[in-house]
Design brief:
Blueprint: H1 4-8, H2 10-21, E1 27-31, H3 42-51, E2 56-60, H4 66-80, H5 100-109, H6 121-129, H7 133-149, H8 167-174
């Protein structure tokens, strides 16, 4: 939105896509909408989208929270496959997996509390990034239990095991219930 030449190139890009990819959904994202000076207005972009049958238009900034970016990616997925289930859609980047919070999550849950075998990294990662409300509640309850356990004065505190069971233990104890 801060570069009129970029906006003027849209005709070329859209023509190129349509010639090479056929009839595909096109989503237009107006970037840097928070910066000045604006060389292209929202109204101009919206009118362009109507005139050129653009499927969806978004305005974005790198400073936006993830909710706007999630809506953009949901729109892309829905354009490709309208039947794809998006109720638990989430957006994570590699940066999320080097955060201190994720490292702490791995430190607490990398070992099964039942058999002491190592949990699979990918399984833990999927639990960590899940937007499934049940898994979010489970994650919060596990963190809360760890916090509370650190303040308990149990004689045999080492017998108190809090964690996520490995695949084998989960199957053995929870699958038939």
């Amino acid at each position: 939105m801060t570069n009129r030449n970029s906006f003027l190139e849209l005709d070329n890009w859209i023509t190129l896509f349509k010639q090479n990819a056929g009839s595909i959904p096109i989503i237009l994202i107006g970037t840097k909408y928070d910066l000045e000076p604006q060389e292209v207005s929202e109204e101009e972009i919206n009118n362009y989208a109507i005139d050129h049958e653009i499927n969806n238009v978004f305005f974005n900034s790198i400073y936006d929270d993830n909710s706007n970016k999630i809506e953009i990616f949901k729109s892309i997925v829905e354009s490709i496959d309208p039947n794809y289930p998006l109720e638990n859609f989430s957006l994570f980047t590699q940066k999320d997996f080097v955060s201190e919070e994720f490292k702490e999550f791995l430190r607490y849950f990398s070992v099964c509390p039942i058999c002491n075998n190592e949990n699979h990294y990918e399984s833990l990662k999927n639990i960590y990034i899940s937007s499934d409300p049940k898994l979010i509640i489970l994650r919060d309850q596990l963190y809360n239990a760890i916090e509370v356990s650190q303040h308990l004065s149990l004689k045999r505190r080492r017998n108190l095991k809090i964690g996520i069971p490995c695949c084998d233990c989960y199957k053995r104890f929870f699958n038939n219930k």
